[in-house]
Amino acid sequence: MPGSRRTRRRSLRPDESRAQSIWHGVPVSRILVVDDEPGLARALAINLRAHGYSVEAVGTGRDALGAASDEPPDLVVLDLGLPDMDGVEVVRGLRGWSTTPILVLSARHAQQQKVDALDAGADDYVSKPFGMDELLARIRALLRRTSVPAEDEPAVVTTDAFTVDLAAHRVTTAEGVVRLTPTEWHILDVLVRHPGRLVTQRQLLQQVWGPAYGTETNYLRVYMSQLRRKLEPDPTRPRHLVTEPGVGYRFEPGG
After folding, report:
1. pLDDT of amino acid 255
2. Cβ density class 86-113: b for 16+ within 10 Å, e for less
3. pTM for the structure as a whole
């Protein structure tokens, strides 16, 4: 039966079995690729395997939810344009029981769909067409964050321009302590606790101002501008407090 779980399992390569758990002496991370374009799915699988990941590829949302339930992956790469269901619904379905990182793929023009997927619980996105180097970097970043226990979260985060002491609620630069308003601190705190991760405008508004907020993006523009003037060496070309136009913001420690 096409699309059945049995058919999907037969498509796996022998070296992708459960028994294979290390690669060159390093534990393997399992990645579930969900894309209905056979050529792209095949290229992703080949490249990911070449970099030491164990890969299962499926082409529908239903198969994605079934595969994730059968053998939970360490990360999901999810195309939002699926033939049987909206990719955002797949995100919601996974988030109903799983905290597995989800990296979504979408066309550049599908901005609202990206925002909806991120608000539903996806962790990051890459726009098509994309480079493999960027995709691999996003995957490594997501896997690094999930491999560190929450209690090991650093109390102090340092960049080349400023240092944030999360416990003391203090920010310093080479010139000394920076005075932040409570709202500026709250925004910075949310971003710094998710390094490299895209935080959507809605997520940031609701965490800082409350659940009744979600569309007041002008608030964010004002406060992000103020934060950049206080913390970025060149506020017009921010290296650490980065805007993803129309989607959200990202804190990049390395700049």
Report:
1. 58
2. bbbebbebbeeebebbbbbbbeeebeeb
3. 0.65
